[in-house]
UniProtKB/TrEMBL annotation:
Transmembrane stretches, start-end: 21-43, 55-73, 94-114, 134-153, 160-179, 199-222, 243-268, 303-323, 355-376, 382-410, 422-442, 462-486
Record-given protein name: Unannotated protein
Subcellular location: Cell membrane
Coarse class of the protein's main subcellular location: membrane
GO molecular function: transmembrane transporter activity
GO CC terms: plasma membrane
Keywords, sorted A to Z: Cell membrane, Membrane, Transmembrane, Transmembrane helix
Membrane-topology annotation of the record: Multi-pass membrane protein
Length: 502
């Protein structure tokens, strides 16, 4: 089926509705992976029973970001959303700088998921007698993701939709069962999870800050809604609706399920239970997924645990596909702007940005091979290092987008003061605060603390190894490189800039 546009330089329009975009975005946030990986760590190293309230608070903060983001999507429709929004306000060079930082964010999160996928599959398949190194399973996923992305985005949406529905249903079954049972306390203690003093337990520079950092990181991917604007049925309305729905679903899911986890383990016994369920050879949180699975065994049955074990795998795969699509569309936008070669601005007969898909896959394969040759661990190294870089990259760009919304509407007008000033300014401040927390607690998030430093302690903030500092600064370096490249390519004189930034 040919593309709608004979020049092959536009993504096919009218392929995605609100539901299709929401599938991509919620799948990218990988809620089941977050529940098995981030939430137990946020609880034990963070603010304990206050973690559900932390996720709710972070979700509300990101809704503020979405107000201006959605308003901007009504004015600017582009496959490289952040690139276009920042470029409209601060000029094409700044737009390209933000695009480079965004690409770092999406590439690193996909690499992180490849590592987690390979490590998890190697363990699960070994139980069935299929013993293969982690990279074998990773490369199988790599081939499937590349193929589906080249076929077209609507095929991917169907796959993601099916996987996401099963994933969400499994979490809701567990949550409803636990909350109905009441756990060892005999009921649901809402105050323990949502009272402000419990959310702020340990202080912003201590436990509460750690939990907030993990919660912010769990939302990575929601901002991808605008990337699919060109392919949506009605870009002026679809993107805004999809953004609100995506954040609402992610917030509700994390808040409700984490509340069920607190209830299931009991308020008083929560720390002991997390240690018991997640320890391997006496090391707490060595297997954080064990917390959710133990609760599933206790309150529902091993049958759900088995299903969830495989849904974690499918959740990871869904995330891989979502970020492959997002990254390839950024390359498409950069090709159309003249930053990359014109070949990146073309789509294949299925309407997919073929060169962008191939480049994304080549970069992923190169890094995977490097980690294999260097004999680095797929989870302890590839997953934790890359996912932590992603958190910094995306929030850095979201701050600039919030500021870009203010600047754009000051010039163009057309929106009320809430959407054009109050909400985006508030979101910029909150996101800056979140970025500070993520960077200051990077040694805990990525496991890159200075030698002899306990990263879980409040006084250990910013105590990073040289590798840690290199990883922390990589999104900023990428943005600087993007600005220099844009200057060298004279992007501000490109005849394609108006097409991209309109």
């Amino acid at each position: 089926m040919a593309s709608e546009n004979s020049d092959g330089q536009s993504l096919r329009k009218g392929r995605l509705g609100v539901a299709g975009i929401v599938f991509f975005v919620v799948a990218a946030s990988a809620p089941l992976v977050g529940m098995t990986g981030a939430v137990p760590v946020a609880m034990l190293a963070g603010n304990l029973t206050g973690t559900p309230g932390t996720y709710l608070a972070v979700g509300l903060a990101l809704l503020l970001f979405s107000v201006g983001y959605a308003a901007m999507s009504n004015k600017v429709t582009n496959a490289g959303a952040f690139f276009a929004y920042v470029g409209k306000a601060f000029g094409p060079k700044a737009g390209v700088a933000s695009a480079f930082a965004s690409i770092v964010g999406y590439i690193t999160i996909q690499l992180a998921i490849y590592g987690f996928f390979g490590g998890l599959m190697a363990g699960q398949m070994a139980a069935y007698g299929l013993n293969a190194p982690w990279y074998v399973w990773t490369l199988v996923a790599w081939a499937l993701v590349t193929g589906l992305s080249l076929l077209s985005v609507d095929v991917g949406a169907k796959v993601l939709g099916t996987l996401m529905i099963a994933e969400v249903l499994s979490l809701l079954v567990l949550a409803v069962t636990i909350l109905s049972n009441g756990g060892p306390d005999g009921g649901v203690n809402l105050a323990a999870s949502f009272a402000p003093e419990n959310i702020l337990l340990g202080g912003i520079t201590g436990g509460a800050g750690i939990a907030i950092a993990f919660a912010f990181a769990s939302f990575i991917g929601f901002e991808a809604t605008a990337i699919y604007g060109e392919e949506s049925i009605n870009p002026k309305k679809t993107v805004a609706k999809a953004t609100y729905w995506a954040i609402g679903i992610i917030t509700a899911l994390f808040s409700i399920v984490s509340l069920a986890m607190v209830t299931g383990m009991g308020v008083a016994t929560l720390p002991d239970k997390i240690v018991e369920y997640s320890s391997v050879d006496g090391v707490p949180l060595a297997n954080p997924a064990g917390v959710l699975f133990a609760l599933s065994d206790t309150y529902v049955g091993n049958w759900l645990t088995q299903i969830m074990g495989w849904l974690v795998v499918s959740s990871l795969f869904a995330g891989l596909l979502a970020f492959q699509n997002a990254t390839s569309r950024y390359f498409f936008a950069l090709g159309r702007s003249g930053v990359l070669s014109k070949g990146f601005a073309k789509t294949n007969p299925s309407g997919a940005p073929q060169a962008g898909v191939i480049l994304t896959s080549v970069l992923a394969a190169a890094v995977i091979v490097f980690f294999v040759v260097a004999n680095l661990d797929p989870i302890l190294n590839l997953f934790f290092w890359m996912s932590s870089i992603t958190a910094i990259a995306i929030f850095l760009v979201e701050i600039f987008v919030s500021l870009a919304v203010v600047v754009y509407f000051m010039r163009a007008g057309g929106e009320n003061v809430w959407k054009s000033k109050i909400a985006p300014i508030a979101s910029a401040l909150l996101l800056t605060f979140g970025l500070y927390l993520i960077m200051s607690r990077f040694n805990l998030l990525a496991g890159t603390a200075s030698e002899g430093v306990d990263p879980s302690l409040a006084e250990s903030a910013w105590a990073l190894s040289p590798l840690g500092w290199g990883l922390v600064l990589s999104p900023f370096i990428a943005a600087l490189i993007g600005y220099v490249v844009a200057s060298m390519r004279n992007v501000h004189h490109s005849k394609m800039v108006d097409d991209v930034l309109s």
